[in-house]
Amino acid sequence: MDASAISAIAALVGATVGGLTSVSATWLTQKFQIRAQWLMQERSRRQDLYRDFIEDASKCYIDALQHDKADIPSLVSLYAKISRMRVLSSHGVLESAEQIARKILDTYLEPDKSFIELRDMANSGSIDLLRDFSDACRAEFAALGVHQF
User: Fold this and answer.
1) Which one of 30, 52, 89, 107 is CB 3.0 to 4.6 Å from 85, fit for a cystine?
2) Percent of the chain topping pLDDT 90
3) pTM for this predicted structure
4) For residue 125, what is the DSSP state?
5) Are 128 and 56 spatial neighbours (Cβ–Cβ below 8 Å)?
């Protein structure tokens, strides 16, 4: 082979390798960006669901402490959120949410609490029904952050 042919082949091979490197780098970058965007959307979706569940569970629990007649529409909304958690959430978060719902139902069967009893419960920390749920959510978000890339 003459020198000009070798130079031309070398140029073509170099251009091909350079092009493949560029395409590969672009593909990997887009893959990681899409994955990061999906994880952020997933995290946001869970945060919204958990926020709504905490608000609904708090309202249902205080209603159960003060009344013996269940607020059925609120309970249905709470169970709907738990069903959504079955699709999105970790086992720990789901188990904690189900435990909260059971506690709320059991609380409706107990005698109504007076304001003084509610204050005593708040002072002792026994009114905090959502602590385990919040901890499970925090652990789930921490695990999502570790597996981000």
Assistant:
1) 89
2) 50
3) 0.74
4) T
5) no
